[in-house]
Amino acid sequence: MTKNSSETIALIKEMLDNAESSLHSAKNLLIELAGGEIKSTRDYSSFAASMSQSKSEEGTVIEGIFNGEQMIGPGNKIYPVPANYASKSKLVEGDVLKLTIKPDGMFLYKQIGPIPRKHIVGPLLNDNGQYKVIINEKSYKVLLASVTYFKAQMGDQVTIIVPESGEATWGAIENVLPKIE
Fold first, then answer.
1. Whole-number CA gyration radius for the chain
2. Quick check: 163 and 94 in contact, CB under 8 A?
3. What is the pLDDT of residue 25?
4. Are residues 108 and 143 in the same domain?
5. In angstroms, rounded to a whole number, what is the distance separating the alpha carbons of residues 176 and 153?
6. Residue 18's Cα: distance from chain center in Å?
7. Using an 8 Å Cβ cutoff, are 140 and 168 in contact?
8. Are strands 157-163 and 138-141 parallel, antiparallel or unpaired?
9. Strand-pair partners of 24
10. Same structural domain for residues 78 and 13?
C-alpha cells in the first residue's frame, strides 16, 4: 500500500467517524425531543426503526432502544440485555444502546445515548414476584438483579432513576438509603 493510499484510508475513516458521531448526536436529540411521548414498549418501536444496523470486522453492530428489560432494534427485533449489565449500568427506559454481535456469537452491549434522567425515592415492594418501587401512587418495576446487587429488602427506601419526562414503567435502582434509627 502506498503512502497516498494509507492517507486516503485514514481520511475516509475519519470522515466515517465524524458522520457516525453526527448521527449519534442527531438520534439523541430526536429521542430527547420525543421523550415526553414515549409511554410504552409499543412507542419504542417507532424510535427503534430509525436505529442502524451494520457489519464490521468486529461483527454485526446494531443500535436500539432499551425498554426496561430488553433492547428493541430495527425491525422491532428484540435483543436480550443481561439483567446484571442493565443493573450495574443503571440503564433507563429510552437509553440508546449499541450491540456488537461478535463472529463467535458473543453479545457486547454499550450505552451510547443516555436520556435525561431524574432521581426519585420510594419504598421497595414485591407484587406477586415483581419488585416495584411506589412513588406518589405510581409504581415502577425494578429488576431482580438490581434488588440483589444492592441487597435491598422489602420496605427499604430506594432511590431509582427514571426518564426525566414522559411515563415510565421501569426504574433503575441507584441506591438503597440507609435506615435511620
1. 19
2. yes
3. 58
4. no
5. 9
6. 23
7. yes
8. unpaired
9. none
10. yes
